[in-house]
Amino acid sequence: MTLNELHSGDSATISRVRGRGAFRKRLTEMGFIRGKQITVLKSAPLKDPVEYRILDSNVSLRRSEASLVEVVSEEDFKDFLLDSPGRISGSQHRGPEVPRPEKVIEVALVGNPNSGKTTLFNRVSRSREHVGNYAGVTVDSKEAIFSHQGYTFRITDLPGTYSLSDFSSEERFVREHIMLKKPDVVVNVVDANNLERNLYLTSQLIDMDVTVVLALNMYDDLLERKDKLDLALLSKLLGIRVVPTISHRGKGIFRLLNHVIRVFENKDPDIRHIHINYGEELEQSIQRLQELIRITPSLTDHYSSRFISLKLLEKDDNCAFLISEAPNFMEIQDSAREEGNRIRSLFKEEADTLITDARYGFVAGALKETMKRSGANPGFSRSQRIDGILTHKYLGLPIFLGFLWLMFHATFTLGNYPMTWIESGVDLLGSFLNSHMAEGIFRDMLVDGVIGGVGGVIVFLPNILILFFCISLMEDTGYMARTAFIMDKVMHLFGLHGKSFIPLVMGFGCNVPAIMATRTLENRNDRLLTMLIIPFMSCSARLPVYVLVAGAIFPGHAGNVIFLLYMVGVVFSMLISILFKNILFKNKEAPFVMELPVYRNPGVKLIIRHMWTKGAHYLKKMGGVILLASLLIWALGYFPRDVEYSRDYEQLIAAELEIGTDPSAESIAVFQRQMESERQLHSFIGRIGVAIEPVIRPLGFDWKMGISLVTGFAAKEIVVSTMGVLYQADAGDGTYGSVSLQQRISEQKYSSGPKAGTAVFTPLAGMSFLLFVLFYLPCIAVISAVGRESGSWKWAGFVLFYTTAIAWTVSFAVYQLGSLFQLG
Ligand code: GDP
Ligand code: MG
Asked: What does each C-alpha distance from 228 to 216, 221, 250 come to in angstroms?
C-alpha cells in the first residue's frame, strides 16, 4: 500500500521510501523513514498536495510523491526496532579545563528552519533581521557583534537546515560555514515542538565533533503542553548542554550565553563528545576508513575522521574533495566503495539509509528516556482548527483570494486618507518656500527639485506601509506557508512549484528580497524560472505610479484599475512561465516537500515592527537615491538657461501688462506656460526626450512620460518624482501649492504638434503607460539581485531585455488597437 492510497484521518507506519536521489534524501530528513507513524490530515482545496503529520510536524507532499512512500498497518510493524542501532556508546571527555586568553567567542546559530534562530539573533544583537513563520526566511548569513560578561561575541545567523548533507545550497552553506569558519561554539537552536526531527540535525553536529550548546527554544509551547523533559539527563545523553529558551520573549538568553562561555572555557563537566552507535557492521566500516584517513594528520587536524568516514559511506560527493589532499586518496575511495557494497549486500539497504535510521534511533532513544508527554497539545489542535478553515476544501481558495483583494483595497482606499494629509503638507511647504524665499536657482532647486521629487514619492508612504503590514501579517502568522500549499496545484499547471508562490507574493512588497527568497527552491531551474517572472509582480515602488496615474485618469475607479494591473501582471507571469518552461527549462521539477508550521499569534507589535523595518528601507531609499535622481533630473531640466525662444514672450507679457491687463489673467498665464514649456523642450532633458520620442510615440506617450520611464530604472518610484519635477515645474507661474500633481497630470495638454491642445493623459494613453510601468525593466537593484542569485549576468541581461520588449509590445498593442476602435 502506498501513502497516496490512505484517506484523510488514516494512520499507518512507513515501511519503505522508494524514489531516488534528492527526493529520497529530502523525505528522510523530514522523518519519512521506516517504522515512523504517519497520519493523513487533509488534502489541499484543489486536492493536491496532501498534508501529513509526521514526527510532530505537518508536512505536505504531492500525490505523485506520496505514491512513492510505502506504508503498512501498525500491527505489521510490531517487531521492527528490536535490534535497531542508535544507542549511545563510547565517550570521551573533552580534556582538562583550559583557561583561554582570547576574549572573543565566535558563535554560529544552526538549526531547523523556523526554529527561532533569527529571533534569538535579533534579541542578543538588538538587530532587526527578518523573521517569518515559514521555512527559508533567512537566506543569507548575518553577523553581529555584542558583548556579554566581558566577552565579545561574534554571532552568525545561518539559514535553517534539516540536516547537513549535500541536499540543498543552504545545507552546503551551513556545513561549509561550520567546517571552514570553525566557530568556537555552535548554538544549535532546537524547536521544542519538534524534538525528534530537530535533534536529527543535532546528531549530525555530534558526528562532526564541534562544540555545541543546545538552545531548547519555544520552551513556552512545551510548558503549555505540560510535557516533562529531563533537561539534565538529556544534556548528559547528548553530551551537550541543553538550555531552555523562549527567544521571542527574551527568556533564557542570558543563561544560554553564560553556558556558551562555560563551554568555551571548558568548564562544563557534562560536555563530552559522544559517539552515536551505528551498529556493528557500520562501525566496522567506519573504523576501516578512519584508519586510512588518520594517515594524513593535516586532514584530521581540521575534521573529525569519524565524520569524514560517515560522509564517505553516505556517498556525499562534497566530502570526497575533502580527502583529495590525502596521499592515499584512491585507497580511501576504493575502500569506501567496497564498504558500501558490503553493507548493501548484508542489509539490502544503502549505507546512508542505515545511517539515517540509526540517527533517528539515537534521537528516539534519548527522548524515550527523558521525555514524558502529557498527550495534550493545545498549540497543535488550535493550529488544526485554524487550518480547518483556512485550507478548507471549498473555503480555502476563496478566503485566500478574498484576503488578496482586501489587501489591495486597504492599501489604496485606507491609504488614501493619510495620503491626502501628507500631500497637503508637502504642497503647503512648497508654496511656503516659494513665497518666502528669494527668487533664484536655489529656491527653484529646493521647490521644484527636492520637494517636487521627493515629496511626490513620500506621499505614498502610508500605502506602502499598509501593504507591508499585510505581507508581514501573512509571514508572521504562518499563513504564507499555507498559500504555497493551497496554490501548489495551480502553480504546477504553469510549470512552477508551490514554493515559488511565496517569493512571488513577496514580490508585491519588493522584488529584491523576493529574488533572494527563491533560494528555498531546491531545483535550479525552478529557481531561475521564478526569478524571471518575479519582475511582473508589481512591487511597492510601482504602486505610487499606479496610484498617481490611475487616480488622475480614473478617479472613481482607481482601486479597481490598480487591482486589475496587479492581476494582469500575475496572469502574464503565468503565461510567460509556461512559455519559458517549454523552451528554456525542459526538465523535471523538485519534489514538494514542505513543512507547514503551526499558526502563531505574532502580536500586533511584532507585525508593526516588521512593517516598519520594511518601511524604513523605503524611507532610506527616498533620502538617498531618489533625492539624487530628483536633483539630477531637475538640473537636466533647468539648464541651459539661455534659450532662444521662437517668440519674445517677455515682451509680449510686458505689452499685455502695459495695456492694463491684470497680472493673474489667463492671457498672461498662457504666455508663461508656452514660454516655460518651450524652455523645457530646449533643456537637456527635453533634448533627450525628443531623441527617444520616436520610440515611445506609438505607445501614446509624450516626451515627459518617456523621460520618467527612463529614470525609473534607478528605482520605480523615481518615475513619480520625475513626473513631479517635470509637470510641476511646467506651470512656471508660481501657483505651486494650488494644484496637486495628480490634477496637473489630468490637465496636461499637448502644447504643439499634431495633437496640440488635446489631453496628454487620455484614458487610453494612461492605460498604455500604466501597463508599460508594470512590465518594463525592473530597477537596477533587482537586476543586480538576479545577477547575483543566478550566478550569471547573462540572466540579468536577459531579464532587462525581455521585460522591456514585453512592455513595449503590450503598450503598443493596447494603444494602437484602442486608437483604432477610438477608445481614447
Ligand atoms: P528561524 O527560521 O529559525 O530564523 O526562525 P525565526 O526567528 O524566523 O522564527 C520563526 C517563528 O517562531 C517566528 O514567528 C517567531 O516569532 C517564533 N518564535 C521564535 N522563538 C519563539 C519561542 O521561543 N516561542 C514561541 N512560541 N515562538 C517563537
Ligand atoms: Mg531565520
From this structure: 13, 12, 22
pLDDT score recorded for residue 679: 78
346 and 70 Cβ atoms separated by less than 8 Å: no
Sequence-ordered strand ranges (E) for 538-625? 594-596
Q: Which three cell numbers stand for residue 61?
A: 507532499
Q: For the chain, first and last CA: distance in Å?
A: 64
Residue nearest to atom 2 of ligand 1 (CA): 114
- Taking the centre of ligand 2 as the mean of its atom positions, its distance from the CA of residue 136, in whole angstroms, is 7
Q: What are 48-93's pLDDT values in tens digits?
A: 889 999 888 888 888 888 888 888 887 666 544 333 434 344 344 4
Strand pairing class (241-244; 212-217)? parallel
What digits encode the pLDDT tens for the residues 111-137? 998 899 989 998 888 876 766 666 555
Distance CA 596, CA 194 (A): 12
CA of 619 to the centre of ligand 1 (A): 27
Question: What is the distance of C-alpha 3 from the center of its chain?
Answer: 32
If 0-12 CB within 10 Å is exposed, 13-18 middle and 19+ buried, where does residue 96 land?
exposed
Ligand nearest to the Cα of 140, by number = 2
pTM, whole model, 2 decimals? Answer: 0.68
The answer to whether the CB of 133 is under 6 A from ligand 1 is yes
16: number of Cβ within 10 Å: 15
Q: What is the average per-residue pLDDT within 412-429?
A: 82
Q: 649-658 vs 666-682: helix axis angle to the nearest 10?
A: 170
Tell me how many degrees the CA angle 466-472-477 measures, rounded to the nearest 5: 130
Specify the DSSP element, H or E, that contains 570.
helix 558-583
